[in-house]
Amino acid sequence: MIYLLLKTGHIVALIIWIGGMLAQVLLLRTMPPGPDLHHVLDAAVRWDRRLVAPAMLLAWACGLALASIGHWFASPWLIVKLVFVVALSALHGFVSGCVRRMATGTPAPSALSSHAGAALLGAVMAIVLLVVVKP
């Protein structure tokens, strides 16, 4: 029963985390800089701190617990998956930092943030493939 609860928590946390990151990426791509949209950016920063970042931590905790219960730490697919998850966590830090900078009036680095959505979706697809197929 604990395995199913952990798996459910992991999936729900992932949906919130990835959904929140997608929303942030869309915000970076579509929001023109300007003082009249400051309240939207402030709300996005609060949303990241209160919901998206805790969901990332919950996904990590549940995922590591699942890997421990399943004795998968020696599996090559899990090692590769963890590399993608670490990259995804770093991307979350970068994207949320860009949104915080935009909220203070500093423009986001457009060259890097323009590819954040593709990197996010690519990492998620690779992770799902590794988890389902377990090569």
Protein architecture, described:
By secondary structure, this protein is mostly helical. The chain has one domain (2-133). 83% of the residues lie in helices and 0% in strands. It contains five helices and no strands. The protein has helices spanning 2-30, 38-70, 76-103, 110-113, 116-133. The radius of gyration is 16 Å and the shape is elongated. It starts with a helix and ends with a helix. 26% of the residues are buried.
Give the structure's gist in a few sentences:
The protein is an all-alpha fold and 135 residues long.
Indicate the overall shape.
elongated
Q: Regarding quaternary structure, how should these chains be classified?
A: single chain
**End-to-end gap:** 26 Å
Class per helix and strand makeup = mainly alpha
Secondary structure elements and their pairing?
Layout: H1 2-30, H2 38-70, H3 76-103, H4 110-113, H5 116-133
Helix pairs in contact: 1-2, 1-3, 1-5, 2-3, 3-5
List keywords for this structure.
135 residues, mainly alpha, 5 helices, 0% strand
